[in-house]
Specification:
This protein is an alpha/beta fold and about 260 residues long. It has one domain: Rossmann fold (3-Layer(aba) Sandwich), CATH 3.40.50.1360. The protein is built from nine helices and ten strands. The strands form two sheets. A seven-stranded parallel sheet has the order 1-10-9-6-2-3-5, with helices on both faces. It starts with a strand and ends in an 8-residue tail after the last helix. Bound molecules: fructose -6-phosphate (F6R).
């Protein structure tokens, strides 16, 4: 089962996730990172940037694959995930821009964009660590409820709920694209380590579904129960609907010294 760690703050979760990623890069300088966008991974990117400033490590060969991208936004749109990943992760971490791929949401090449992306991930040797947030609908990536556990990168239709949640990044809710390209749940399952982060009460239900609910495509985050190496980092509010909370705390408090996140 996933290792569930309940932390006092988003900052603490970011520090733990960043330490895990840093350890990976020090062991494998051309590590392949799976990069989420949105608010959730920000504390991880900030902590990793801070750690790299304090104690530099060569990240020039690190490679990265974004989880998803909106379809049809004009090139250079500030809220395209290409722009967001560049701003939030590539620049602060000092990654090599040419090593970072984002699904191509251009309408002209949409038909082959998913298979091209899968081919690129395979050619890179797969994702070593996938950073994940979770939506209120339970989505990981943009795999909305009903997404197949075998799905690969493809076009999906965002739910109205997700579009409303993401409207905060746009001028108006109507500006949020309806379609996206997202790594599938099958793609995510192939990553060697998943780090799922969630903060705040509004994520509590989705987190409970992912960790303790039935494994069902109605709760896409429950795909983590099929994965052999998952770390879930949550704050108290996001953990508030977990039934086995005492056990997760007990397991973490008694974590063997040789085990790392
Ligand atoms: C982002 C992504 C989404 C977000 C989720 C949570 O690349 O794939 O699954 O992780 O929508 O978004 P935030 O973190 O903004 O609450």
């Amino acid at each position: 089962m996933a290792e569930v760690v309940v932390l006092e703050s988003e900052t603490d979760a970011g520090i733990l996730a960043a330490a895990s990623i840093r350890r990976l890069i020090s062991q494998k300088p051309d590590a392949v990172l799976g990069l989420a966008t949105g608010s959730t991974p920000m504390s991880t990117y900030r902590a990793l940037a801070e750690s790299l400033r304090a104690d530099p490590l060569d990240v020039s060969r690190v490679r990265g694959f974004a989880l998803d991208e909106y379809v049809g936004l004009p090139a250079g749109h500030p809220e395209s995930y290409r722009a967001v990943i560049t701003r939030d992760a590539v620049e602060p971490l000092g990654l090599t821009p040419g090593n970072i791929r984002v699904p191509n949401g251009d309408l002209a090449t949409l038909e082959t964009a998913g298979s091209d992306y899968e081919a690129a991930i395979r050619a890179a040797g797969g994702v070593d660590v996938q950073i994940l947030g979770i939506g209120r609908t339970g989505h990981v990536g943009f795999n909305e409820p009903g997404s197949s556990f075998a799905s690969l990168t493809r076009v999906k239709t965002l739910t109205e709920k997700t579009r409303i949640d993401n409207a905060r990044f746009f001028m108006s809710p109507d500006d949020v694209p309806i379609h996206c390209l997202t790594q599938g749940l099958g793609t995510i399952r192939r990553a060697r380590h998943l780090i799922l982060l969630a903060f705040g009460e509004e994520k509590a239900e989705a987190i409970a579904g992912a960790i303790e609910g039935p494994v069902t495509s109605s709760s896409p985050g429950s795909v983590i129960q099929l994965h052999p190496h998952v770390t879930v980092l949550v704050d108290e509010a996001a953990a508030s609907r977990l039934t086995n909370l005492d056990y997760y705390r007990y397991a973490y408090a008694n974590k063997p010294a040789w085990q790392v996140v």
